[in-house]
Amino acid sequence: MFYAEVTLLRREGRRLPQREWPAPVYGLVRVQDNAHGNFRRLMRSLTLHEQIGVGSVRHALSLYDPYFLPSADGALLIAGIELCSAAGQGVREHGQVWLCRTRAHHDESREPLSALLDRHQPET
Predict the structure, then answer these.
(1) Is the pTM of this model over 0.90?
(2) 117 with 18: CB under 8 angstroms?
(3) Measured between alpha carbons, how far is 62 from 76 in angstroms, rounded to an integer?
(4) Is residue 49 within 8 Å of 25, Cβ to Cβ?
(5) Going by DSSP bridges, is the β-strand pair 57-69/2-8 parallel, antiparallel, or unpaired?
């Protein structure tokens, strides 16, 4: 478990150029092993819990079957499976990459990331 800002680097499995990256989400990242669900096997997952307001926490993001990728600039890249649901389409799986930068608290200042990270994402 660790606190980090997480930026999603893909949208519906499509790699996003750096100029299209969404704003990072800050929260507590937890690693869990789950033996239930549709995967029908032991599945490791990462969840990000974001604090909203005073004393309120919400489940913001999930990543299944995570693995670590080479990274640059002190960041941690974690790739895995994201589950998405759309009206009338059911649940779909997409590849997702999280760019994690650990931070002790939400207001801690960080240097901007360089364009080096764009070269480290997997192509598929």
Answers:
(1) no
(2) yes
(3) 16
(4) no
(5) unpaired
Torsion of the alpha carbons at 85, 86, 89 and 91, rounded to the nearest 10: 0
The token duo for 6 is 């997480």
Cα distances (angstroms) measured from residue 73 to each of 5, 69, 123: 14, 13, 20
Task: Provide the 8-state DSSP code for 21.
Answer: P
What is the per-residue pLDDT across 13-50, written as a single tens digit (0 to 9) for each? 899 998 999 999 999 999 988 776 666 778 889 999 98
CA distances, 9 to each of 39, 85, 120 (Å): 24, 19, 11
Contact 98, 5 (CB under 8 A): no
Distance CA 101, CA 69 (A): 14
How far apart are the C-alpha atoms of 98 and 54, rounded to whole Å? Answer: 26
Q: Under 8 Å CB-to-CB from 13, ≥6 apart: which residues?
A: 94, 95, 96
